[in-house]
Specification:
It contains 16 helices and 12 strands. The protein is about 35% helix and about 15% strand. With about 400 residues, it is an alpha/beta fold. The protein has 2 domains: about 10-205 and about 325-390, Rossmann fold (3-Layer(aba) Sandwich), CATH 3.40.50.10540; about 235-240 and about 245-315, formyl-coa transferase, domain 3 (2-Layer Sandwich).
Length: about 400
């Protein structure tokens, strides 16, 4: 049985960062109920391709929402806030999570003080852009810019670039997971709940220990494209049929690289130490490129791997999906209505106990009858009245 199978999470979530966290919890067995406003629900439901031929289930919504239930609830109405409090009181809610802006907490009745009073031991988790005392709106690229990530991404003579994935959102989700595990451990020891506030800015800044410290010491880290400020050769190199990333991290690896047939001429005495390679990095990369371009990606990777030099083909996403090492660890979710099946990448733990089969991402309000009716006991007439009034 998955480790978190006894955990119930009620999540007022949208966009990426919190759905990414709660999907990980769902994959580890938690019962996750996502709460969305009636009507259009999470804006991500309407982003991307229409794969199912229906509204509010566009492709961008699917990846982070397998394994969950969905209910709708209008927290702008007093009756909606009352239903939320009924859910917290009567369901075995262990965790309430939200990524709404802090100004909405009291107005929507989702603040820690209100919900914690209803359920002692509740773990309340809020993810915000800049912490609970700042109400600025924030998206991942805004944080990448503000935290200095974009200053380090791109070619030195070109404008800064945003990273290819929403890594601030994803990183904050991972940090929230760690904080939640600590809170669960604390509750197991003391019975006490917790308030957890995760800042996207703090999360982004926490990855920047080396650049911040070096800059503070007068050695700024700057954009260098695919090269490395402190090690060489480190870059993407062309091959006969693609590209390969080579990362030489020490002098022993460099010496091994110069033993590859055709690469012997690179064994200059000036390059024996990393400092010498760094000082001549542009010419060194040109000379290395002339040699990598004569080999296929597979031949280059095989030669360097056999000598202990870190190397990887620059895979397309299609090639990654075909990687057997990843494929057998993927989880899958199949839509019972259309038969569409989606795959999720493996969890980080190689020997993890996550679920291999998950329910398909929920339609908006798909579980209203089950949660409000079967669990809370509201009859068909009451549910119809709530729908008509726009409460659910």
């Amino acid at each position: 049985m998955p480790l978190l199978s006894d955990l119930t999470v009620l999540s007022l979530e949208q966009a990426t960062t919190l759905p990414f966290l709660t999907q990980r919890l769902a994959r580890e067995g938690a019962h996750v109920i996502r709460v969305e406003p009636p009507g259009r629900g999470d804006p991500n439901r309407h982003v991307g391709r229409d794969l199912l031929g229906e509204d509010a289930m566009a492709s961008y919504f699917l990846p982070n929402n397998c394994g969950k239930q969905s209910i709708t609830l209008n927290l702008g109405e007093p009756e909606g806030r009352g239903l939320l409090h009924e859910l917290v009181t009567r369901l075995p809610v262990d965790v309430f999570a939200t990524n709404n802006r802090p100004s909405a907490y009291s107005r929507l009745g989702i603040d820690y003080e209100s919900l914690g009073a209803l359920r002692p031991g509740l773990i309340w988790l809020g993810i915000t852009g800049f912490g609970p005392d700042c109400d600025e709106a924030a998206y991942d690229p805004v944080l990448q810019a503000r935290a200095g990530w974009m200053a380090l991404t791109g070619e030195p003579d070109q404008p800064p670039l945003v990273f290819g994935l929403p890594m601030v959102d994803l990183g904050a989700g991972e940090h929230a997971y760690g904080a939640l595990m600590k809170a669960l451990y604390r509750r197991a020891l003391t019975g006490e709940g917790s308030r957890l506030d995760i800042s996207l800015l703090y999360s982004a800044a926490s990855w920047m220990a080396s650049p911040y410290m070096l800059a503070g010491l007068g050695e700024p880290v700057v954009r260098r494209g695919n090269t490395h400020q402190f090690f060489a050769p480190v870059s993407v190199y062309p091959t006969l049929d693609g590209f390969a990333y080579i990362a030489v991290g020490n002098d022993r690896q460099w010496e091994a690289l110069t033993r590859v047939p055709g690469f012997e001429a690179l064994g200059d005495p000036a390059y024996q130490r990393n400092a010498g390679r760094i000082s001549d990095v542009a010419r060194l990369n040109e000379r290395l490129t002339q040699r990598t371009a004569r080999l296929s990606t597979a031949a280059l990777a095989a030669a360097l791997t056999s000598l202990g030099v870190p190397v990887a083909p620059v895979h397309t996403l299609a090639e990654v999906l075909a990687d057997p090492l990843l494929g057998r660890a993927c989880a899958r979710a199949r839509d019972p209505r259309t038969g569409l099946e989606v795959a999720l990448p493996p969890l980080a733990e190689v020997s993890g106990d996550g679920l291999s089969e998950l329910s398909f991402p929920p339609r908006l309000g798909e579980h209203n009858d089950q949660v409000y009716g079967q669990v809370l006991g509201h009859g068909p007439r009451a549910l119809a009245q709530l729908r008509q009034a726009g409460v659910i």
